[in-house]
Specification:
heterodimer, A: mainly alpha, 13 helices, B: mainly alpha, two-stranded antiparallel ribbon, 76% helix, binds CIS-heme D hydroxychlorin gamma-spirolactone, binds protoporphyrin IX containing FE
């Protein structure tokens, strides 16, 4: 069944649609954790450098230089994976681009500019450590932080548009009256996505970096350098995590209003219900959640602030308009579960820090940090699976289906295999480079 | 009219990508051909150091071209990307492997590891420009019809014109790189390296010229439409400019005048791209004129505004980067940075105030974002919550750690 839009190119039969989708998902899953570092890491490095400027304490300088090397490595990986995504947007979904490029493309064009700015100043910042005055050097870092955020705003505006399309009209199925500014930035859906992702950037970066030093701490590496290197990112993640829960709740309410079918899938709500419950855990079959723990009326309350509100269930939508419920639901529960645990861990840490003025001393806390690092990445990916798979079968919500967007070229499985292999090597290479950096002794002269 | 302006932006981006990114690929090729021993090693290191600071910036031009193209000429991008899926995928993989090798290059000095990395780097430095060049050849020889994979997936890019343009892209990059690296060697006062790269510039220049001439013959057979465009009017003018600039560059290189040679080499390459565009007017793909291919007016205006606004910010930044590169600001460490005066590390009293404020913001944010349902309330709620997080960060004073602080039981404070 086709949708309302007449595509820019004639739709084709693609027998490897699933592989194309998986390839897209794989590319995102590799790119997005790197993006978190692009959002949050420059600010953390600059914070450390700012401490150096204020105190003249070389331990900050050593740390900031170390982290700059990490930043560069991850940035290079971000560039590479981002370039692949840009290619894929056209290679895998040419019809999406051909039909709606004029509506959403602007976001990517501005994104391109912001990464350009970022690349330029990373070049200057990295190679300017000994060649610019400390203050000038610090200032050349600021555009990096700004550009990282600006770039992610742009991409997310595109995603917000795909989830809540506007800024154009369909006349006889043709896209007309295009207003790209309104499509991208006048879009209510964009705001929760941006704030939620921005916080996720700090959570993921913070827990990953802190987790690395927690491993060291458990092995007895615990000098002043390591303590600062653990405390700063951990504090950033800890202040972001509790806020993330509130923002996530806001996101869910937005979803309830604009994408009822996605909400029904998130919660596994088979039929439209007045005073709908929430099910924790469990498995969705035959229009209901089995083996879950039901909390009566909670869904109606959370989604519409009214315990008796009616929540639309999956039975109100034709079967071929529904996303794969269990994928979306499990991803959502993973994210919320991990998000809640991270928030609790964070509150505990902040409490100890505030009351005792010290870092926690129990072994399990550092063990928990080691676990929190990968868990935060899982939450991140799970969140995107919720959003993107939850939007299926549409690529542009209720306007264009994913199977209308896909390329007619053959050979998707081959590229998928090559890409998967390349990304395995990429991950290995990045891990190896970071490990090299980690085991290199600190320069003695720099304390 | 508007679409022509946007096309010129895209072409300018393509020229810059060819001239800067192409040279970057070329540097990779010279690394492959550097030969064994310390001499080879010196050549490889020279190429790496010259390119490292500008690597990312050079390559973002490709992203620029892609994004402008798919915003302003969406149907063209959709058709090209589906029919030319194979060469474009290979180019993308080349970029991945090149990025991997680049990231690793500075990380190791173990010889056999270096060898694997350098070879990967160089191989992808050839593959990527070849495939991109072959894709251009496919479009120029009208082998990409409008439609979702409507053209032949193989012969569209395996054909005389594509092979020619692919090779030309590789050789032109090598030529540009040799000229730039020779100029860098002069600046660094490395006469040996200067000689090496002068030689390479001359050889690759001759090769590029020969390819271009042979190319005209091939195109005459294989893509008559393109040939006619290149031998009349604006197309012819561009070919003449390119030939003159190419010959001029050879002369300049011969006399070791590398700085002006940088510019004329770039002009020679840029003119080829201009010539292609001129020769192909007015269609972009067979039967599809530029005007028909263009996005609606409002989008074109948006792109123009975005590009101009971006340009105002980017131009001075790029200028700064290249100035630091060219005047050698990145080669020699200046005097060690003066150490700022040591001040007290503690934030001291504000901490308690910060914490109270953070709590207040958190409560306000909760009410505004979570309890209330109005959109306006949400805006202020988000601001309050972000403020709460920032204030809490400073209230905790993440770097104010007592001297032997915390840590798991078995760790030793150093
Ligand atoms: C570290 C990461 C992280 C954590 C801890 C959370 N989330 Fe999340 N979530 C994301 C990372 C994320 C994300 C990857 O960034 C998503 C994908 C799209 C988006 O805007 O953010 C997302 C999407 C997302 C969506 C879908 C929005 C949409 O489709 O537009 C909802 C409803 C939530 N989240 C809700 C929550 C709740 C209630 C959480 C807390 C308990 C939570 N998230 C914790
Ligand atoms: C513009 C064109 C885009 C297309 C055609 C597209 C389409 C898709 C498709 C088909 C999937 C796979 C769904 C599945 O596995 O069933 C997917 C997954 C995903 N997309 Fe999108 N998407 C696009 C843009 C974006 C943007 C702009 C973002 C982020 C800002 C995004 C983030 C994701 C993520 C994170 C996933 C899932 C990753 C995973 O499953 O591990 N997508 N997308
Ligand atoms: C369709 C999806 C996407 C495309 C086409 C894309 C494209 C790109 C490109 C080309 C780059 C490298 C540019 C450069 O620095 O040279 C990049 C990097 C980056 N992308 Fe993406 N991207 C996508 C998804 C995302 C998402 C989902 C986010 C964030 C929410 C994001 C944020 C970033 C950031 C912050 C960087 C900077 C790299 C770093 O600092 O590590 N991108 N992206």
């Amino acid at each position: 069944m086709l949708s309302a839009v007449v595509a820019g190119l004639a739709p084709v039969q693609q027998s490897y649609l699933l592989q194309a989708r998986q390839m897209q998902a794989l590319s995102f899953a590799v790119h997005i954790p790197l993006v978190c570092f692009g959002i949050a890491f420059p600010a953390l490095v600059l914070f450390i450098e700012w401490r150096y400027l204020r105190t003249g304490d070389v331990v900050y300088r050593t740390l900031a230089r170390r982290w700059t090397k990490v930043l560069v490595t991850l940035f290079a990986a971000g560039v590479v994976t981002g370039t692949v995504l840009s290619f894929e947007m056209a290679l895998l979904w040419p019809n999406f681009t051909a039909t709606f490029g004029s509506v959403f493309g602007l976001g990517f064009a501005i994104e391109g500019f912001s990464f350009f700015l970022e690349a330029i100043f990373i070049g200057i910042y990295v190679y300017g450590w000994d060649r610019l005055s400390p203050r000038a050097h610090f200032l050349t870092g600021l555009p990096i932080a700004v550009a990282g955020v600006l770039g992610s705003i742009m991409v997310i505006s595109v995603n917000g548009w795909m989830n809540h399309p506007q800024g154009f009209r369909l006349v006889d199925g043709k896209v007309t009256d295009v207003n790209p500014w309104r499509a991208l930035f006048g879009n209510s859906y964009f705001w929760h996505e941006f704030v939620h992702m921005y916080l996720a950037g700090y959570i993921v970066t913070g827990f990953l970096v802190a987790g690395a030093y927690a491993v060291g701490a458990l092995r007895g590496r615990w000098g002043r350098y390591e303590r600062i290197a653990l405390a700063v990112p951990l504090t950033a993640a800890a202040v972001a995590s509790p806020v993330q829960v509130l923002v996530g709740d806001w996101a869910a309410r937005d979803v309830a209003h604009t994408q009822p079918v996605k909400l029904a899938a998130l919660e596994g709500l088979g039929r439209t219900t007045r005073g709908a419950p929430i099910h924790v855990l469990g498995w969705y079959t035959d229009g209901r959640v089995e083996y879950g723990i039901a909390v009566p009326r909670l869904l109606s309350f959370l989604a519409f602030h009214n315990v008796n509100a009616t929540v639309t269930g999956l039975n109100s939508f034709p079967a071929n308009d529904q996303p794969p419920v269990n994928v979306v639901r499990i991803a959502f529960q993973l994210m919320v579960g991990i998000g809640t645990l991270l928030a609790l861990l964070s509150l505990g840490f902040l409490f100890v820090r505030w009351r005792r003025g010290n870092l926690p001393t129990s072994r399990w806390f550092y063990g928990a940090l080691v676990v929190a690092a990968p868990a935060s990445v899982v939450a991140l990916i799970a969140g995107w699976v919720t959003t993107e798979v939850g939007r299926q079968p549409w690529v542009v919500y209720r306007i264009m289906r994913t199977n209308e967007a896909v390329t007619g070229a053959s050979g998707i499985p081959v590229s998928y295999a090559v890409l998967a292999a390349a990304y395995l090597i990429l991950i290995g290479a990045v891990a190896w480079t970071l490990r090299r950096l980690a085991v290199t002794p600190l320069p003695a002269s720099e304390g | 009219m508007l679409e022509t302006i946007v096309l010129l932006f895209a072409l300018a981006g393509l020229v810059l990508y060819t001239v800067l990114g192409g040279a970057d690929f070329g540097a990779g090729l010279w690394q492959l051909l550097s030969g064994p021993g310390p001499r080879g090693r010196a050549i490889r290191d020279h190429a790496h150091h010259a390119m490292a600071p500008v690597w990312e910036a050079n390559h973002v031009w490709l992203i620029f071209v892609l994004t402008v193209a798919w915003t302003a000429f969406p149907v063209v991008v959709g058709s090209v990307a589906s029919t030319l899926a194979i060469p474009l995928s290979i180019a993308a993989f080349g970029i991945v492997f090149r990025g991997i090798a680049y990231a690793l290059q500075s990380a190791t000095d173990v010889p056999h590891e270096r060898r694997v990395i350098d070879t990967t780097f160089a191989a992808s430095s050839i593959l990527t420009p070849y495939m991109l060049g072959a894709a251009v050849g496919a479009i120029a020889s009208q082998r990409v019809p409008v439609g979702n994979a409507a053209g032949d997936l193989m012969t569209s890019w395996v054909n005389p014109t594509s092979i020619l343009t692919g090779c030309l892209a590789v050789v032109a990059g090598a030529f540009l790189a040799a000229v730039y690296l020779a100029a860098d060697a002069v600046r660094l006062g490395e006469p040996d390296l200067e000689r090496e790269f002068r030689m390479r510039a001359l050889i690759s220049g001759v090769l590029a010229g020969a390819l271009a001439l042979a190319g005209l013959a091939v195109v005459r057979q294989d893509a008559r439409h393109l040939y006619d465009g290149l031998t009349s009017g604006l197309g012819l003018a561009a070919v003449i400019v390119s030939a003159a600039a190419g010959l001029g560059t050879m002369a300049l290189v011969w006399w070791s005048k590398f700085q002006p040679a940088r510019v004329s080499a770039a002009v020679a390459v840029a003119a080829i791209i201009g010539g292609w565009a001129a020769a192909q007017r007015p269609t972009v793909l067979p039967g599809l004129t530029l005007h028909e291919a263009a996005a609606p007016r409002s989008t074109l205006i948006a792109v123009i505004v975005a590009v101009l606004a971006g340009g105002i910010i980017l131009a001075p930044s790029l200028g700064l980067l290249f100035r630091l590169m060219l005047i050698g600001g990145f080669d020699r460490p200046s005097e060690p940075a003066p150490t700022p005066a040591r001040r007290t590390a503690r934030y001291g009293t504000p901490a308690v105030g910060f914490a109270r404020l953070a709590l207040a913001c958190l409560v306000a944010g909760f009410v505004l974002l979570t309890v209330l349902d109005q959109g306006v309330a949400h805006v202020f709620g988000v601001i309050a919550l972000v403020a709460a997080a920032a204030l809490a960060f400073f209230a905790v004073g993440p770097t104010d750690l007592p001297d032997s602080s915390g840590g798991p039981p078995n760790s030793h404070a150093r």
